Amino acid sequence: MRNFERLIIGADAAGIGAACSARSRNTLLVDRGIVCGHDFTAAYKAYPLAYAERPSAEGSELLYGLRKANLICGGKVSVPAASGVLAGLLLKSGCRVMFMTEVVGIEYSGGAYRVTLFSNDGFETVHAAEIIDVTAQGTLHDGAGKVRIDRYCNALLTRLLETKEPRPSDFYTLYNCRFPSEYVYGIRVLDGEEYGGARRRLHETWRAHHKGALRGFEFAALASEFMYAFPDAGKDGYSAKISERRIWHPSPSHGDLLSAFEGGARLCRRK
Questions:
Q1: What is the dihedral of CA 45, 86, 271, 53, to 10 degrees?
Q2: Residues 6 and 76 grouped into a single domain
Q3: Fewer CB within 10 Å, N side or C side of the chain?
Q4: CB neighbours (10 Å) of residue 22?
Q5: How many CB atoms lie within 10 A of CB 24?
Q6: Same domain, yes or no: 210 and 241
Q7: How many CB atoms lie within 10 A of CB 139?
Q8: Minimal CA–CA distance to 235: which of 194, 266, 197?
């Protein structure tokens, strides 16, 4: 049985920030998917980066990677390609990583957590002294039921024509990203609505407006997961203590990629 000082659940932006801050082979990061920073990069959450405070060493590395890849300009970011930058930072951190891995059991005993994982290799049980859960809705706890969480279904649009900037709409959200032709378009997900239903409604809204207010835009790509927002979270994101040395700090409770990455890094820096 493998023993770790720290288990990070989620290769979300905050999870990768925590791994980069920990920089330890004694830290294990697990994620059910394979996309780094998917809460931003796969959900198309591309709000401008916050520069209110001087970035940390880890944050500076992220900014350097984004600038080198030409993915930011004036705070605006092209998030889909940022996944590769985050993957490079995670690899450099030296932490152990398991993708395509589900956390199926968590038990606290003898001052440590006994965590059951399921991956392509089957079941495995590991021990961890502490758990940092950065997933949007939490893993094997009911913390998400105590906080307001909004969901959005997004898509990328390409602006083809030299048209006037579209006006705000009550039917959808629309804002420009890193490049002049790159826009994120989305709708608010209804309570209880699943991905399939939200996706259909997103296309219906698009068909209703692409010859009018959205004339000059082309539908480019659909987000592979919902975008989450925590309207009541402060500038430092939302955090909750689930149990002894087990914290839930949902990465998308931050409004932008840099803030989420820095929020995760702070969790390990305090140790």
A1: -60
A2: yes
A3: N
A4: 24
A5: 16
A6: no
A7: 20
A8: 266
Look at the chain and report how many structural domains it folds into.
2
User: Is residue 32 domain-shared with residue 48, that is, in the same domain?
Assistant: yes
State whether 160 and 237 are in the same domain: no
CA gap 99, 211 in Å, rounded = 42
Q: What is the pLDDT of residues 119-149, one digit of tens each?
A: 999 999 999 999 999 999 999 999 999 999 9
Task: Please tell me whether residues 61 and 109 are part of one structural domain.
Answer: yes
Pair 45, 138 in one domain: yes
Same domain? 156 vs 92: no
Tokens of 52: 């209110």
CATH code of the domain covering residue 203: 3.30.70
Q: Are strands 173-176 and 102-109 parallel, antiparallel or unpaired?
A: unpaired
Contacts of 266 (CB under 8 A, 6+ apart): 21, 56, 236
Find all residues with CB under 8 Å of 109, minimum gap 6, and list them.
none
Distance CA 221, CA 102 (A): 27
- In CATH, what number is assigned to the domain containing residue 86? 3.50.50.60
Q: Which amino acid, residue 226?
A: F
The pTM of the whole model exceeds 0.70: yes
Distance CA 43, CA 206 (A): 18
Q: How does residue 235 score in pLDDT terms, banded at 50, 70 and 90?
A: confident
Amino acid, single-letter form, for residue 179 = F
72 membership: H or E segment, kind and range: strand 72-73
CA distances from 159 to 13, 53, 179 (A): 28, 33, 10
Which residues, at least 6 apart from 20, have a Cβ–Cβ distance to it below 8 Å? 58, 61, 89, 90, 92, 93, 261, 265
Give the structural domain span for 199. Answer: 150-229
Cβ–Cβ < 8 Å for 116, 131:
no
Q: Are residues 12 and 108 in the same domain?
A: yes
